[in-house]
Amino acid sequence: MAAPAQNLRINGDRLWDSLMEMAKIGPGVAGGNNRQTLTDEDAEGRALFQKWCEDAGCSMGLDQMGNMFARREGADAEALPVYVGSHLDTQPTGGKYDGVLGVLGGLEIIRTLNDLGIKTKHPIVATNWTNEEGTRYAPAMLSSGVFAGMHTQDWAYDREDAEGKKFGDELNRIGWRGDEEVGARKMHAFFELHIEQGPILEAEGKDIGVVTHGQGLSWTQVTVTGKDAHTGSTPMPMRKNAGLAMARILEKVDEIAWSHAPHAVGAAGHIDVYPNSRNVIPGKAVFTVDFRSPELDVITDMENRLRVAAEDIVNEMGLQIEFEKVGGFDPVKFDEGCVAAVRDAAERLGYSHTDIISGAGHDACWINRVAPTAMVMCPCVDGLSHNEAEEISKDWAAAGADVLLHAVVETAEIVE
Question: Which amino acid positions bind Zn(2+) 2, per UniProt (predicted)?
Answer without folding.
Answer: 98, 133, 386
